[in-house]
Design brief:
The complex is a heterodimer of chains A (about 150) and B (about 190). Chain A is mainly α. Chain A contains eight helices and no strands. By secondary structure, chain B is an all-alpha fold. The C terminus of chain B is likely disordered. Classes of the chains: A mainly alpha (about 150), B mainly alpha (about 190). At the A-B interface, helix 1 and helix 2 of A face helix 2, helix 3, helix 5, helix 6 and helix 8 of B.
């Protein structure tokens, strides 16, 4: 930008202001400032420490995630095995207690033993009647299906 | 400063090289100190403010590439440092009243009486006008740089500067008619 030029009187005042005395800094000020600047580089040198902590946190998060996924997978596989164990034998009556199926569990596995005891103490809900059985079965759909 | 030289300075600063620190101080130390003294009126506080500016620059040197004007950045940092120091000391930035003559150990190009008159005139100016005068005259900034430091438009900085000079001239002319300053004649 080109501001409007100042009149001579203001230019003169400007020069007087520029020429007014100002205290000089102490003789060793330059050396002190430069030494302080050199010393203050330290925080940036220690920056890798910050990066290290960030890596630690990332690794910890990855371990937690891996554990979570692994336990979910193990739980899913165990559930698959339990359902295969608990598969109803031929002539199994769904509304009867499943005490017979509990025998199929491995008693040495504490988890399966717990599942077996839970299944043994399982009390089925009372039979809600034919209407409920029809409602929750696919018979109804087949009945209404077009030929 | 040529762009290449400033680029080298920035690169040296970003790398934390001591020669770049020295070059920075030699280039900006004196005008920064002059403006700091003008704002704080204490040599010790001025030195503290300037040192704070350079230390801040070293600490934030990783981001120095994003700074458009290094000079404007330094003077803006000085303004903040001066405000912090003034707040800590519970004294206003650009204090009004007589300048502390005991702080002066340098001889300027003007006689002491004229100096006293000028300082009284400056003290009578509004703070924002004194700030523009100090940045322009003591810091040697352009109007664009003054505008960047103060967060105003360059035209506003230029007009504020002119108003400040006109007001200072009026104050000085009025002061020259007072009995104890009649020996000093300003333009």
């Amino acid at each position: 930008m080109n501001p409007e030029p100042l009149p001579p009187s203001l230019r003169d005042l400007e020069e007087r202001l520029a020429g007014r005395p100002c205290p000089e800094p102490a003789a060793d000020f330059r050396a002190r400032v430069l030494a302080a600047m050199t010393n203050s580089r330290t925080p940036s040198i220690s920056r890798p420490a910050g990066r290290r902590w960030r890596l630690v946190w990332q690794a910890a998060a990855a371990v937690v995630l891996a554990l979570n996924l692994g336990m979910s997978a193990a739980n899913g596989m165990r559930f698959q095995r339990l359902t295969s164990h608990a598969a109803a034998p031929a002539g199994f009556e769904p509304w009867a207690p499943r005490t017979a199926a509990a025998d199929a569990f491995d008693p040495n596995d504490p988890f399966e033993a717990l599942a077996a005891s839970a299944l043994a103490s399982f009390t089925p809900a009372p039979d809600a009647g034919a209407l409920c059985r029809n409602f929750f079965s696919d018979l109804e759909e087949r009945r209404w299906a077009l030929p | 400063m040529h762009e290449q030289a400033e680029d080298r300075l920035r690169a040296g600063l970003a790398e934390g090289r001591e020669d770049a620190f020295a070059a920075l101080y030699d280039r900006f130390g004196r005008p920064l100190h002059r403006v700091a003294w003008s704002l704080l009126r204490s040599r010790q506080d001025a030195e503290d403010a300037v040192q704070e500016v350079f230390l801040g620059l070293v600490r934030s040197r990783a981001a120095i590439g994003k700074v458009e004007s290094l000079r404007a950045y330094l003077f803006a940092a000085l303004r903040h440092a001066a405000a912090r120091l003034a707040a800590r000391a519970k004294t206003p930035v650009l204090p009004a009243g007589d300048p502390p003559a005991r702080d002066l150990n340098a001889q300027g190009e003007i006689d002491p009486e004229t100096f006293q008159l000028l300082e009284r005139g400056l003290a009578a100016l509004p703070g924002e006008q004194r700030e523009v005068l100090s940045l322009k005259i003591d810091g040697g900034l352009t109007f664009a740089e003054v505008a960047a430091v103060l967060g105003i438009r360059p035209n506003t900085a230029a007009s504020r500067y002119r108003y400040a000079l006109e007001k200072l001239r009026a104050i000085l002319e009025a002061g020259c008619h007072e009995p104890r300053t009649t020996s000093t004649k300003l333009a």
